[in-house]
Specification:
The protein is mainly α. The protein has a domain at about 55-85. It contains three helices and no strands. The chain has helices spanning about 1-10, 15-70, 75-85. The longest helix has about 55 residues, at about 15-70. The radius of gyration is 35 Å and the shape is rod-shaped. It starts with a helix and ends in a 15-residue tail after the last helix.
Amino acid sequence: MAQEIKDILIRHQKPLLWAVGLIIVVVIFLGSSFHSLVHNKLEMRKLTRQSALLDEQHQELLRKMDLLKKKDTAYLEEVARTQYNMIKPGEIQFRIPQD
């Protein structure tokens, strides 16, 4: 059995060497392409998540802009108090130091 395999390998030595050489060339060229494909796929997932997050932020900003255009008094008061530290006349503002 082993002798038969050895004889077959000797008879087909040249085609086998060509096949091995071709496989090596294909692996060398497609190996870098495969690496690029995987890298691009991971980058695409990352960018898709980032895009979804930016879409959510955009929708939130549109909602806030709509409230500002409608002059929603509750929202305007919230913005004035939180972003500009404004108080109503007669109110006392307590500031607690942050450590």
